[in-house]
Each structure stands twice: as structure tokens, then as C-alpha cells.
């Protein structure tokens, strides 16, 4: 049986150069509000094709703050989410992009980019100067978004350089 691949890492050196957040007509940005747990879980389950509980991944953490969990809504319905997180190992100056997802029926509308950008703006408002993230090899559309927003691969595992070389063959820069 094959061992699961380790997570891949990406880093954005500076949050100073973020472009303005622009949403399509009919879309709006808001942060988490009490009672949004099920909405977040629905978006993440549809995005990752597995059940992840809000309490386990976000709500039970000492880093949880409602304003860090971003939602893009179509009308009043949240359809994409990303979290401006922090991790001890990244240091105080670096934010951590966490749990980015969008409902599949909204694919191709730029929501992944927009919600990621919203989370990066939140990090910058918290005086973070850079950002990191973890991802998987198969999340090519997400990796392309991250690349276009200035994230670059960080080689932490023995096989990361080889895996990134393979992935970059699919990314339209």
C-alpha cells in the first residue's frame, strides 16, 4: 500500500503588493458569524470531497477569530471560504492561508482567487508581512491561483523538488 504524499508548501514573500479585491456583481465579502459552522462545513466538504468539522479544524483552535474566516457570498449564500490563520512555526510576521474552498458549481468564476485575496488582505491588516500555505499535488487549480498571487514552492521534503517540477508542467503562468 502506498504511503500518502506529504503536503507541499508555498510561500509568498510579501503582502505589500496585494491587488485590490474585486468581486463580480451580485457577490459580496463577509466574515464568519455565529451559526456559520454548517455553512463552512458544507463548502469545505464539497471542495475537498471529505467531511471536515469546523470545530476540529478551526473553531476549537486558540487562533480562531471570526474575522479571520472569510466568505464570498452570492446574494446571501456563502459559496467560497478561506481563513487568514497563524501557526507557531511560521512566526509572528507570517500568516498562514488555511482551508480555501469554493462550491464546485461556481468553479471558473474567480472565487478561489477572490477569497484567497480576502484572506491575504486580512493577514496584512494584522501586520503580517508574508504568508505560507500547505497544499496537495492534485489541487492544480488552487496551485495555479496561488502561483498567480505570488506564492512560490518551498522544498521541505526529499521528494518536493521532483513533485513541484511535475506540477509546474501543468500550471499556466
Automatic annotation (TrEMBL):
InterPro entries: Acyl_CoA_acyltransferase, GNAT_dom. It holds the Pfam family Acetyltransf_1. Transmembrane segments: none annotated. It comes from the Bacteria. Residues 27-169 form the N-acetyltransferase domain. This is N-acetyltransferase domain-containing protein. It comes from Paenibacillus marchantiophytorum. The lineage of its organism: Bacteria, Bacillati, Bacillota, Bacilli, Bacillales.
Amino acid at each position: 500500500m502506498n504511503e500518502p504524499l506529504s503536503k507541499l508548501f508555498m510561500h509568498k514573500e510579501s503582502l505589500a503588493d496585494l491587488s485590490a479585491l474585486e468581486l463580480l456583481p451580485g457577490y459580496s465579502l463577509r466574515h464568519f458569524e455565529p451559526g456559520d459552522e454548517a455553512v463552512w462545513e458544507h463548502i469545505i466538504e464539497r471542495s475537498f470531497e471529505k467531511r471536515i468539522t469546523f470545530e476540529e479544524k478551526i473553531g476549537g483552535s486558540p487562533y480562531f477569530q471570526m474575522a479571520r474566516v472569510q466568505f464570498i457570498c452570492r446574494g446571501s449564500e456563502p459559496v467560497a471560504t478561506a481563513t487568514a490563520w497563524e501557526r507557531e512555526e511560521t512566526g509572528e510576521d507570517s500568516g498562514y492561508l488555511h482551508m480555501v474552498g469554493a462550491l464546485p458549481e461556481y468553479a471558473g468564476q474567480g472565487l478561489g482567487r477572490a477569497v484567497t485575496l480576502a484572506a491575504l488582505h486580512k493577514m496584512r491588516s494584522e501586520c503580517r508581512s508574508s504568508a505560507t500555505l500547505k497544499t496537495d499535488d492534485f489541487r492544480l487549480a488552487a496551485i495555479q491561483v496561488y502561483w498567480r498571487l505570488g506564492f512560490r514552492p518551498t522544498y521541505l521534503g526529499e521528494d518536493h523538488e521532483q513533485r513541484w517540477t511535475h506540477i509546474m508542467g501543468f500550471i499556466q503562468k
